[in-house]
Amino acid sequence: MSGHLVFAQQDSVRVTEENVSSNIKLAYNSSIVYPGLKAGIELPFRKRIINKTKKLGKERHLFKERLFSTNLGWYHHSTFHNNLYITAGFTMRRNNQKGLFTEFSPELGYSRTFLGGTTYQVNENGNVSIKKMAGYNYALVSLGVGLGYDFSVSKSKPIAIYSKINMLTMFPYNSTIYIRPTVELGIIYKPKNFLKFNSKTKHIHKDKSQL
């Protein structure tokens, strides 16, 4: 047809499996203005590599990862409590070809708080004593969103840096729900041989070329 451009969309999909190394995370973990630390392990189990060939042969690459994660966190709220918690869940991470990534991570876990200061208890006879390691146990739900840069994508270095906001929900808390936001500033290290895990990678090539 004279005077018209015709385009064809051609997709190809290939799936591979391999044992890949797990990632190690370490972060400064702050509850608003209260300091803390957080450490964790990420086990990658699924990845999508999307290569797009656009008009005039321009290419674009996109990486989507799914990772199991387990984390141990702590923060110190002065005059209130220390909170030690462990979570497990999964992370959905999206990388562009320059290494910039965003992520979302729902997690479930357990929280143990330790009250600040001295706590006293009174028994049935009216005797007063000091209660050591006083605190409370909670179920915990965490939702987090993050932004970072992965140096392994563009510079072949096994590290990434990130910032992340998490919303911790602990219950039951005095018959209600306790919500606490936290902020992470951390690093992800990607060793070659650490807790290797079977992972599936789907390679998708989308070719939109001019005929």
Protein topology:
Elements: E1 7-20, E2 23-30, E3 36-53, E4 59-77, E5 81-96, E6 100-115, E7 120-122, E8 128-130, E9 135-150, H1 151-154, E10 159-173, E11 176-189, E12 197-210
Parallel strand pairs: 3-12
Antiparallel strand pairs: 1-12, 2-3, 2-11, 3-4, 4-5, 5-6, 6-9, 7-8, 9-10, 10-11
What does this protein look like?
The protein is mainly beta and 211 residues long. It has one domain: Porin, CATH 2.40.160.20. Helices cover 2% and strands 74% of the residues. The chain has one helix and twelve strands, in the order E-E-E-E-E-E-E-E-E-H-E-E-E. The chain has an eight-stranded antiparallel β-barrel. The protein has a two-stranded antiparallel ribbon with strand order 7-8. Strand 10 (159-173) and strand 11 form a beta hairpin. The chain is elongated, with a radius of gyration of 24 Å. The termini are close together. The model is unreliable at 1-7 (pLDDT under 50).
Jot down its keywords.
211 residues, mainly beta, Porin, 8-stranded antiparallel barrel, two-stranded antiparallel ribbon, 1 helix, 12 strands, elongated, disordered N terminus
